[in-house]
Amino acid sequence: MLFSRHRNHLPTAEEALKGRPEPGFSVPDRHTVLGNPLTGPYPEGLVVADFGLGCFWGAERKFWEAPGVWTTLVGYQGGHTENPSYEEVCSGLTGHTEAVRVVFDPKITSYAALLKVFWESHDPTQGFRQGNDVGTQYRSAIYSHSPEQQSEAESSRTAYQSVLTSSGYGEITTEILPAGPFYPAEPYHQQYLDKNPAGYCGIGGTGVSCPIGVAPADG
């Protein structure tokens, strides 16, 4: 069974599945909630940010509900296999994590505000899991699109680690790396919880406020 393998080990490029030069499906044209196109090129002035915080169904909803977000798109990032399928990613043999691409208007919101949503929406100390979801595809990750995003993400990790430590949590395991290829997920994954309001959502935070862009958290 593909789903039972390599849950706690990231494959090397040599170990990873080969993949394919083109995806085997087409991504829907528009976001079912926000009404805007899912894929680029995006309008001038908008900014792209990529986050992995567990099952992307619930993670995507956290971001499409945030002010200033123009569109969101779920996919696979941080691995080796070209144009992987969901089943391949869940096998642990591609190296990808489930990710959300967030396109936002910097005139309305900020990268710092999205980092706050990211940190507070999951437990970033769990390694290759998120709650009951176990596997490398559920690891916490931030993939930056500029040196400024990279620096801001790293600074936010340091700030959140301080308040997590004070609250009894362990070390943050979030990987923060320059963005590599982002492969959109299958159509049924896009805005899944809008299409299936009672669907599974494994996203849950620590309850510890993140001090990014706001006054330091109490306690």
Automatic annotation (TrEMBL):
E.C. no: 1.8.4.11
Active-site residues per Swiss-Prot or TrEMBL entry: 55
Keyword Oxidoreductase applies: yes
Annotated GO MF terms: peptide-methionine (S)-S-oxide reductase activity
Keyword set includes Oxidoreductase: yes
Reactions catalysed according to its record: [thioredoxin]-disulfide + L-methionine + H2O = L-methionine (S)-S-oxide + [thioredoxin]-dithiol; L-methionyl-[protein] + [thioredoxin]-disulfide + H2O = L-methionyl-(S)-S-oxide-[protein] + [thioredoxin]-dithiol
Family: Belongs to the MsrA Met sulfoxide reductase family.
HAMAP family: MsrA
Listed name of the protein: Peptide methionine sulfoxide reductase MsrA
